[in-house]
Amino acid sequence: MVAQEVFWRRKTLHEMTPSEWESLCDGCALCCLQKVEDEDTHEVFYTTAVCHLLDFNNCSCTRYEDRCTLVPNCVKLKPDDVAEFHWLPPSCSYRLIAEGKELPEWHPLLTGERNSVIETDASVLSIWEVKDNEISDEELLDYVID
Ligand code: SF4
Ligand code: SF4
């Protein structure tokens, strides 16, 4: 019997089932960092200011179901948005797959451990400095990642 290739190598993002799509997220929450966009070039820069709705114990969202209502710039990724994935963190699984790359070895789908992204310091918990509701919009610029 020939072993079947894992779904993320066998399927395109559009072909994945909803549960496969969800499982592709490594739980890093790097996309929960606030970003600033250069008005002229539209280049996106990440900051170390993180959304105040993050659960700092396990790197999950405390209000996942209501996230897009409570935080208007919270991003709900969909396969149709693949062309815009360039602004996602370079390690983001959706971006990696969209670019035809492999998942990192610490990805939960490879380790079988949900926390492996945290344990390898690949999550937002390793880089955040401040919650976004503790600073002003002007102060956000002080937290831009070089
Ligand atoms: S950056 Fe990508 S992989 Fe990480 S939490 Fe956000 S959507 Fe998931
Ligand atoms: S609302 Fe939740 S998912 Fe959205 S940015 Fe904040 S912590 Fe992340």
Structural account:
The protein is an alpha+beta fold and 146 residues long. The protein has one domain (12-143). The protein contains seven helices and five strands. It has helices at 7-10, 18-24, 67-70, 93-98, 108-111, 116-119, 137-140; strands spanning 33-37, 44-50, 54-55, 60-61, 130-131. It has a three-stranded mixed beta sheet with strand order 1-2-5, with no helix packed on it. A two-stranded antiparallel sheet has the order 3-4. The longest helix is centred in the first third of the chain and has 7 residues, at 18-24. The chain is globular. The relative contact order is 0.22.
Identify the notable features of this structure and list them briefly.
alpha+beta, single chain, 146 residues, three-stranded mixed beta sheet, globular, binds iron/sulfur cluster, 7 helices
Reconstruct the topology from this structure.
Layout: H1 7-10, H2 18-24, E1 33-37, E2 44-50, E3 54-55, E4 60-61, H3 67-70, H4 93-98, H5 108-111, H6 116-119, E5 130-131, H7 137-140
Parallel strand pairs: 2-5
Antiparallel strand pairs: 1-2, 3-4
Bound molecules: iron/sulfur cluster (SF4) (2 copies).
One iron/sulfur cluster (SF4) binds at residues 25-31, 77, 88-89, 92-94.
Structural class: alpha+beta
Radius of gyration from the CA trace? Answer: 16 Å
| N-to-C series of helices and strands | HHEEEEHHHHEH
Morphology: globular
List low-pLDDT spans. none
Number of distinct beta strands? 5
Distance between the termini: 51 Å
How many distinct domains? 1
List of distinct ligands in this structure: iron/sulfur cluster
- Determine the number of helices (DSSP H or I, runs of at least 4 residues): 7
Taken as a percent bin, the fraction of beta residues is 5-15%
Helix content: 10-25%
Mean pLDDT rating: 94
Order of adjacent strands in the largest pleated sheet = 1-2-5
Quaternary arrangement of the chains shown?
Answer: single chain
Largest sheet: 3 strands, mixed
